[in-house]
């Protein structure tokens, strides 16, 4: 469906911004499970399917979006739109991303109260929750792999050239990851300080 929409826009107008808005509308429409799921979907659509950006650029945006306030899906949409088409492009891409959720929330707020006690609705939610949990788990695992096992040039998942390089890249990333988990769960330090520490740590040691 999205292929047909994009091909029609390109054939009739040639305006890449409209294609971008349509793509983010599609992403927002099928993203069930939050921003972490949006990462996987955006990577498949923007990088693998339509080749609007390359993998290095995309994962750099993921890091930036995770490190800044706001929902990650909206942050990525704003970032890509602004990078490709300026401030207006960022606003339009963001609108495309949030519009499906806005429509769904309005409809749910209008009708959910009347049907929440229906057995069919309760049965749907009882199966929807574990399905969404699985999708989120896959997205989280993908992010962990990218964060821990990534080569500096190109952000490509590939084996380091030497043993020393392997220890440097994988070892340092893993140590900092485990240390961050310990601090996050065993202390009262705000997560924002861990994000800042990660940036400083990467500049100094990586």
Verbal overview:
This protein has helices at 2-12, 16-30, 35-49, 55-66, 72-115, 119-148, 163-186, 191-205. With 206 residues, the chain is mostly helical. The N and C termini lie far apart (43 Å). The relative contact order is 0.09. Residues 8-14 and 151-161 have low confidence and may be disordered.
What are its keywords?
single chain; 206 residues; mainly alpha; 8 helices; 0% strand
Note the main sheet: none
Shape: globular
What is the typical, i.e. mean, pLDDT? 75
Whole-number radius of gyration? 20 Å
Summarize the structure.
The protein has about 210 residues and is mainly α.
Chain-wise SSE layout:
Blueprint: H1 2-12, H2 16-30, H3 35-49, H4 55-66, H5 72-115, H6 119-148, H7 163-186, H8 191-205
């Amino acid at each position: 469906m999205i292929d047909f929409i994009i091909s029609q826009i390109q054939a009739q107008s040639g305006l890449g911004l409209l294609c971008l808005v349509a793509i983010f509308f599609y992403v927002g429409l099928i993203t069930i499970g939050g921003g972490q799921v949006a990462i996987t979907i955006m990577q498949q659509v923007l990088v693998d399917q339509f080749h609007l950006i390359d993998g290095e650029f995309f994962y750099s945006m993921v890091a930036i979006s995770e490190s800044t306030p706001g929902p990650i899906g909206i942050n990525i949409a704003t970032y890509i739109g602004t990078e490709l088409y300026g401030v207006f492009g960022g606003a339009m891409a963001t609108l495309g991303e949030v519009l499906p959720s806005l429509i769904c929330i309005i409809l749910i707020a209008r009708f959910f109260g009347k049907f929440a006690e229906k057995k069919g609705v309760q049965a749907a939610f009882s199966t929807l929750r574990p399905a969404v949990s699985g999708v989120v788990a896959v997205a989280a695992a993908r992010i962990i792999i990218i964060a821990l096992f990534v080569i500096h040039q190109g952000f490509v998942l590939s084996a380091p050239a030497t043993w020393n390089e392997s220890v440097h890249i994988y070892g340092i990333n893993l140590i900092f990851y485990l240390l961050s988990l310990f601090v996050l769960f065993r202390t009262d330090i705000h997560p924002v300080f861990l994000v800042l520490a990660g940036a400083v740590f990467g500049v100094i040691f990586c």
